[in-house]
Amino acid sequence: MEFKPLIGISWELAFQLINTFLVFLLLKKLLFKPVLGVIESREKDIRENLAEGEKAKSEGLSLKKEYEEKVNSAKNEGQEIIKQATLRAEQKESEIISTAKQEAQSLKEKASKDVEQERQKVMNEIKNDISDIALLAASKVIEKDIDKSKHEELINNFIKEVGEAK
What is the per-residue pLDDT across 148-166, written as a single tens digit (0 to 9) for each? Predict the structure, then answer.
């Protein structure tokens, strides 16, 4: 059996090397350059998308911060409105209580005046009744009619003296 070397230098080998080199050049020209262009374009798109993502993230964070500030501002404003409404309600309450006290005092004073007027009226009626009774008693005692106006004057003077003595 004859052993052939695995690699031998021959014209076949030279043609195979030339053909491989030509196929490499052809593939490089037709396949590698377009594939590398596609790869570079995809890398560029990915970098742009990452940059846009970072930009969107930073915008989102700034919008979130702005939103939180607005929410806090609205919350503070709401608390201020509630505080002012509470103060106005307390002032209104004080006004109502003050008005009610004034009206109660006015009613009390009016009632006191009415009682005093009624007391004075009753006192005058009592004086008149006493005067009539005293006149009747005196006329019974004397058995004659005294001048009524003179007698009333005497009784009124007597009542005044008794009233002043108290």
Answer: 777 777 777 777 766 665 5
